[in-house]
Design brief:
It is built from 8 helices and 41 strands. By secondary structure, the protein is mainly β. The chain folds into 3 domains: about 200 residues, no CATH class; about 60 residues, no CATH class; about 120 residues, no CATH class. The strands form 5 sheets. It has a 10-stranded parallel sheet with strand order 1-2-5-17-20-25-28-31-34-37, with no helix packed on it. A 10-stranded parallel sheet has the order 3-6-18-21-26-29-32-35-38-41, sandwiched between helices. Strands 4-16-19-24-27-30-33-36-39-40 form a 10-stranded mixed sheet. A hairpin with a 4-residue loop joins strand 9 and strand 10. The longest helix is centred in the first third of the chain and has 19 residues.
Amino acid sequence: MKTKRMVSLIISLLIICMLSGCNAQNTADISSPDEDILFSVNEWKEEFNTAVKDLAITGKTYYISNNGDDNNDGLSPETAWATLDRAFETYWPLTRTLLKPGDAVLLERGGTWYVSPDEIDGLTSDAYNIVDGVTLGAYGEGARPIIRGDIPEANDPSFWTLYYDKNGTKIWATSEKLQDVNVIVFNEGESYANEIMPFWSTTLNDYCNAKGEMFDIVTELENNLSFCCMLDLDSAESVDLQNSTAKGTVFLRCDEGNPADVFYEVAVPQAQTGLGLHTNASLVDLDIRYFTCIAAELSGYDGYTGQQVINCEVSWCGGLISEYQFSNESPEGVLRPYCAGGALQVSGSENSVRDCYIHHCGPMTLICSIHVDEPRMCKFENMTHTGNLIEYCGSALHMADLSKMDYEDAEGYISNLTFSDNIVMYSGEGWVENHILQIDSENSMFFSAVENTMGAANNGGIYIADNIFYGSKANLLCLTDNLWNDTGNVNQSIDFSGNVYAQYKNGTLCNFNWERGWRAGYASDEQKFLDFIRDETGVVIVLK
């Protein structure tokens, strides 16, 4: 069922209820609208699992299969290549200039390909670059081909060494040192281990807990299926960890036994970014999972435009520790971890994310943040993100104009961005909840369905229309009208229209300028909220 049609149905149900004598307060007791949303979400997933998008291929088609051979010509399923390297790595002499705009590289459905972590500094150094005008898609029958950023060695029992075994508590250490790990996923998402992030003490010049006491692995891993990543650092102060290759031992508590014996799959993400899209490049019908920073980059920072991600599944991405920061909420001399990344970097122009299922990613999902490398105007324009289901993620749409943070005389604009016909479920819940609470407070960033924060986006049109926002751990919306460091105000407010705002009874509908306001479950507050965001056709549903 299309989201816009679903929104219209829910609004109709509410109107019928009110005409029957219910007031806004009583809408909290109506089960039909929220039940209809949940039913339709299940329908959406069923359709997505069998959906196949038509590919408009105007050039040559190359095929890659787990049963292929890189010495083949790749021009048919029978002569398929075996690896992504064959198509996209420059060390293959034949492929340095092989792919042209209009060409497609297709992965066989049911297959799996790993992206290896790189030793080179940089968030996107791991990524395969999909060059100008090329589509990376799928062929054949069965499940979407999987591109993953974890390490297969974690499924071998010899990868795990027993570090601690006492009174039923078993803690296992990795046999090799790893880069930062954001989450450990078992059995394709059936369960996961929560990361316990160490802080850093400038007094001790060593890891500590939030109180400033020396970090003790056994004490801190107090719950089963929790882990910590102890990078080898001389000092964490002002260290840009996201662009480093610092490594350390990972300690995982698994009381049932060796993780690789207990679970048929242990996914330990290591590669930071999976795919980088150049101008007019596309990803279609792929399953991208287990990257510590982002699944794919649709960025304009290198001058690329027009990238598309269509009908893809993106999951369990984001959350790597990028740096340690001072905080007013921490004791003196204690640096708190700060995490970055999410599902997709969409900081550019003419890009689009459509009909995708994105889940268990954080602390952000679709990231539109303006940075500049010199004092200038930077404008991202004409972006459309529509028809997606986003659930159990951090902020679904994160917008930030950080140009003035980079240079006082710089200016950023977001112009003509449309976020429409999407379903956003359970923002800030799942593994990202514990992750976010360790790096920030519940009343700040990363819990909301939509947020323009860290300096509001100066904009020439941001349109949030006909979406369903269903349940958030803190605020459905997180908004501000202040530019970076109070240097000014946002040029133009976001245009909200026709959205359904379904929030828990004691949850917050909107955080504005870092102040909570407009709780769900109180009719006057609900109307004030709709008036404030000027959504004349929007409705509020109070979830039980």
